[in-house]
Amino acid sequence: MSDTRNVIVVGVDGSDQSAAALRWAFGEARLRGADLHVVHAWSSFPAFRAEGRAALSILDETDLRAEGARLVEDFVARVVPDRADVAITVLAPQTFEGVAHSLVELADDAQMLVVGTRGLSSLSGLLVGSISAQCVHHGRCTVVVVREAAAEAAASRDITRPSRSRSCAGSRASSSASAR
């Protein structure tokens, strides 16, 4: 792992849980004076055209990339409208190795990786989704899994001043770098 950059990476998928993670990560970036990288890693099946049949995909790869970035930018604008004091970079990379793998790689030299408890999966009864569990297990920096209620509580506090004791109340923080 290289030197840690003053960057917080947050994974989003448009769900309420990822909105909570984004709000928490934004507040943390503001407190730390860090840049925020908002990431939506996506994958798609290869589009191919069988002779005599319509294409499986109506958008080409360039259109998909542009649409992915636009969706994330719109999501960020809606979730954190007052963001002038934090530098935000939106990333919407296509992944062939899985979303969690992409998030872990992009956060390799970041201060932390932030994800929601679960995303758009229909398995809403799970306390932690597969992506967040994989990030905690494989992450090489601090990984924070934010519950929606904890993020709402954090958003309501004054985040212009750091408090004396910082805790991840309602969140699970894990640093797996020391375990390697």
Key structural traits:
six-stranded mixed sheet, about 180 residues, alpha/beta, disordered C terminus, globular, Rossmann fold
What features would you describe in this structure?
The protein has a single domain, classed as Rossmann fold (3-Layer(aba) Sandwich). The chain is 34% helix and 16% strand. Strands 3-2-1-4-5-6 form a six-stranded mixed β-sheet, sandwiched between helices. The protein has 180 residues and is an alpha/beta fold. Helix 2 (61-79) links the parallel strand 2 and strand 3 (88-91). It is built from five helices and six strands.
The helix/strand series, from N terminus to C terminus, equals EHEHEHEHEHE
Overall SS class: alpha/beta
How many domain units?
Answer: 1
Distance between the termini: 11 Å
CATH topology: Rossmann fold
Give the class-level CATH name.
Alpha Beta
- Quote the beta fraction: 15-25%
Mean pLDDT: 76
Shape: globular
Which regions have little confidence, pLDDT < 50, spanning 5+ residues?
A: 46-50, 120-127, 159-180
Write the layout of secondary structure elements.
Layout: E1 7-11, H1 16-32, E2 35-39, H2 61-79, E3 88-91, H3 99-106, E4 112-116, H4 130-138, E5 142-146, H5 148-156, E6 171-175
Parallel strand pairs: 1-2, 1-4, 2-3, 4-5
Antiparallel strand pairs: 5-6
What is this structure, in a nutshell?
The chain is α/β, with parallel strands linked by helices. It has five helices and six strands. It has helices at about 15-30, 60-80, 100-105, 130-140, 150-155, and strands spanning about 5-10, 35-40, 90, 110-115, 140-145, 170-175.
